[in-house]
Amino acid sequence: MFSPLTALLLLAIISTVTSTANSCLPSELKALQAIKASLREPNDGIFNSWTGTDCCHNWLGVSCDENTRRVADINLRAGTLYTTFEKARKPGYMTGQISPEICKLTKLSSITITDWNGISGEIPKCISSLSFLRIIDLAGNRFSGNIPSDIGKLRHLNRLSIADNVITGGIPRSLTNLTSLTHLDIRNNRISGYIPMGFGRLQYLGRALLSGNQLHGPIPGSISRIKRLSDLDLSRNQLSGPIPESLGLMSVLGTLKLDTNKLSGMIPKSLFGSGISDLNLSHNLLEGNIPDAFGGRSYFTSLDISYNNLKGPIPKSISSAAYIGYMDLSHNHLCGPIPKVLDHLDASSFEVNDCLCGKPLEACKKK
Ligand SMILES: *[C@@H]1O[C@H](CO)[C@@H](O)[C@H](O)[C@H]1NC(C)=O
Ligand SMILES: *[C@@H]1O[C@H](CO)[C@@H](O)[C@H](O)[C@H]1NC(C)=O
Question: At the top level of its lineage, which domain of life is listed (predicted)?
Answer without folding.
Answer: Eukaryota
